[in-house]
Amino acid sequence: MQSWDSQNGPRPLSQLSTQSWDSQNGPRPLRESSFISASSQSDLPQTPKKGPYAPTLTRTDRIRIKTAFDFNISPEEIRKQYGYTISQIQRAKNLRLTPQVHRRGAKPKIDTPRRSALEKWLLESPSRRYVTWRHIREIAPPDLRLQDCGPYAMRTAFKLVGYGRRVAKRKGFSDDPEVIQERVDFAEEGLTWTPERLFYQIFSDEV
Predict the structure, then answer these.
(1) pLDDT by residue (tens digit) across 108-136?
(2) 8 in a structural domain
(3) Could you tell me where the Polar residues compositional bias lies (predicted)?
């Protein structure tokens, strides 16, 4: 699209005006403000507010509703007597007493019976608490079927039964004089041991 100057030459001076709107046409018309005073807002129609929500049913309430149905009491009579809504009464009638929570995501590789057997195996000996995750499937009984379970499956299984890993507290040396003397005597006796005798000795870090 071409401009006026390119089509008809320079624009005539009569059409060029530097006067403002007020000098040509008088004061500008007043525009309505976008703000409304508080007094005028009260005259506007208000959105009706919702009433209070019905209280959440407890397990005792659901038992009460189910018991009322066992005595052939109608939902309307239950509503008048206890104040529950009809929808709450119908849900309590059709659903379980305790709401069920369904877990999402992948299921644990080790199911509940094997987890219980694994916990029983763990509690049979205190030394099994020091077995690492990756070695459990090699030591555990074959009937647990843990050969295809990795360290993460083991950790998840023990976490679900309430066990976790931590760094064991190291036991320090006793400051009892009798214990100190026994350790000195044991060390002096060990100086005379033969290699065969030393081989059959079991130390505390090997138990």
Answers:
(1) 899 999 999 999 999 998 888 888 888 99
(2) no
(3) 1-26, 34-45
